[in-house]
């Protein structure tokens, strides 16, 4: 029973619906008219422009989302790191040294072993994701961390999480709400 309460406290405190909770889902919409994108995120979370990130470049857009109050911090401390890149899905994955393409299947090398990337799609995009054990490197949270790339033509959005609760929020809510809008 104690585990159920902890689970409910984690998810309901962020106003994200958990199966055993009755708290309503409340969301804000992030919209960038210059980049022509929008997606939802938990209304109790805050975000800021990132320091560092997956790849640096002139067209980089990077946001760090945090469930706790934000302080200037390194990207690995965010619950969810979001980046927008002017690259195709294959270009993003090819540049990441932990991914390998075997014909039509992407795989990722992790501390949990070699994992097959799972396909995902939305109304305006297609992509892949891998969820792997967070108990490696600088991530010491329990559960799975996420690395997801979704693309529309030559634009890709990258979502990376640092804990299991953020992985659930990104996979079930933020990524499905994501929209690339044509200019």
Describe this entry's structure for a reader.
There is one protein chain. By secondary structure, this protein is α+β, with helices and mostly antiparallel strands. The chain has a single domain, classed as Protein Transport Mog1p, Chain A (3-Layer(aba) Sandwich), CATH 3.40.1000. The protein contains 3 helices and 13 strands; from the N terminus they run αβββββαβββββββαβ. The protein has helices at about 1-10, 90-95, 165-175; strands at about 25-30, 35-40, 45-50, 60-65, 80-85, 100, 105-110, 115, 120, 125-135, 145-150, 155-160, 180. The strands form 3 sheets. The protein has a 7-stranded antiparallel β-sheet with strand order 3-4-5-12-11-10-9, with helices on both faces. It has a 3-stranded antiparallel β-sheet with strand order 1-2-13. A 3-stranded antiparallel β-sheet has the order 6-7-8. The longest helix has 14 residues, at about 165-175. It is globular and about 40 Å long. Mean pLDDT is about 80; it is low at about 1-20.
């Amino acid at each position: 029973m104690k585990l159920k309460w902890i689970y409910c406290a984690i998810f309901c405190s962020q106003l994200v619906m958990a199966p055993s909770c009755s708290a309503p889902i409340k969301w804000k919409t992030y919209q960038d008219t210059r980049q022509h994108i929008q997606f939802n995120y938990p209304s109790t979370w805050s975000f800021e422009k990132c320091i560092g990130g997956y790849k640096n470049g002139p067209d980089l857009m990077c946001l760090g989302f945090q469930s706790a109050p934000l302080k200037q911090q390194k990207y690995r401390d965010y619950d969810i790191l979001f980046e927008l890149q002017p690259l195709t899905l294959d270009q993003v994955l090819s540049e990441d040294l932990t991914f390998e393409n075997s014909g039509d299947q992407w795989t990722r090398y992790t501390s949990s072993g070699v994992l097959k990337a799972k396909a995902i799609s939305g109304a305006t995009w297609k992509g892949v994701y891998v969820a792997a054990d967070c108990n490696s490197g600088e991530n010491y949270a329990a559960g799975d961390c996420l690395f997801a790339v979704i693309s529309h033509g030559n634009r890709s959005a990258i979502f990376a999480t640092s804990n299991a609760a953020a992985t659930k929020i990104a996979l079930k809510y933020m990524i499905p709400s994501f929209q690339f809008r044509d200019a």
